[in-house]
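User: Please go through the entry that follows and flag anything odd:
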Amino acid sequence: MRTDIQKGPKRSQGSRDNSYIKQAKMRRQESSKFLRTVLVLTILIIGAALSFFILADNQEFLEEHLGKDNVITQLFVKLSKENDTKHKADFSLPFGTKRKNILLLGVDSNGEGSDPWEGTRTDTIILLNVDPKTKSLNALSIPRDSKVYLPDDHGVQKINAAHAIGGIGMTIRTIEETLGVKIDRYIMVHDDAVKEIVDALGGIDIYVEKNMHYNDYSGKLFINLKKGTHHLNGKEVVGYLRFRHDPMGDIGRTQRQQWFLRGMMEALKKPETITKLPEIVNVASKYIKTNMSFYELSQYAGFARHLDMDKIEIAMVPGAPNKKGYISYWILDPEKTQEVVNRLIYREKINPENMTEINAGIMYSTGFEEEAKLIKEQLTTLGVNVACTGNVNKTHTQFIAHSKNITNDYFNWLKKKTPSIIGYQFVYEPNNYYCNGTDFTVVIAGK
């Protein structure tokens, strides 16, 4: 694994505090980008799965709206019969039970009318490890400002420049050489995909939690939303997701994207969505680029339907921000990065050590003091030492593991003993920004 790490003189307490703030801000931004891409792909892939497995059985609806002899009608009826669980397995991936690494990329735009796949930078980079045997998925987010070596003597650059310089080929080689992994497939999504798909669906219902007003003339972003439940079109949804000018910083884009996902999934479940599939497919063909066949995509869609949500583990490549002149970099931590890659991508088996004492931290947003007390009591009863508690501005409940001893198996066991944390998102983050020395942190926030 090749990285570029710069060491400097010992910093003052003020410098360390400033570094902490920068790192926390960087983590929030990367988390938002991570969820943004996952949402787009969820719409395209899981949305297709919902259509296949929920609407395909409604033969009367298909025949009424599309006609008995329509190609789409016949295809969906055929898929329904083929996926009859009484006769065969729920899904079968093209390559059996072997784990695969799939690279997900979100690209920016070079301006209206330009080729979305030429000379564009990767705004979001995520490496997925799919394990059909255990029906689990791990996701590793790579910050776009990561300082890396580009192949073919292109020197040190930000990783998001790889696509602009050498296209998907250089992007894949850069990630493979940096992390020491093999990428099997890739999916690229253009920024306009969300807008076009929402419009293709006729808009979606979303609860806007606060008044949102923002005008960016240079970026052509105009947001004017009022608090309350609204039926938003594609442009309004993009504004809702991109809004980040919160005076108190209490409501982040991460939680807004989750609320958007709820509205999107509800829209996809409606029977009339089937009649809009041709338009959605047209959007996908324009804003999605992949080296997967339609057959492969449909099989992974089937896999997504049966994904065990309790076995999803996400992480971001560990590192720290560093500024050289006017250029900001994310400097990867080689040791911790290798630890994360081994855990999420290579699925390295962990043999817990020194598990006689587990130390935990509990962080909570304003208004969740009682929930924090309850979880502290439950953890203490189990013999977990709650080393610290505190207030934090977060919008999403999470269970963050800092020690390699805290595995998904441990988390699932803990949920059985501590029902209050059921539904929390599991995140692996070796860098502990909350309570030094703790093995995991419980973050209580949002809905």
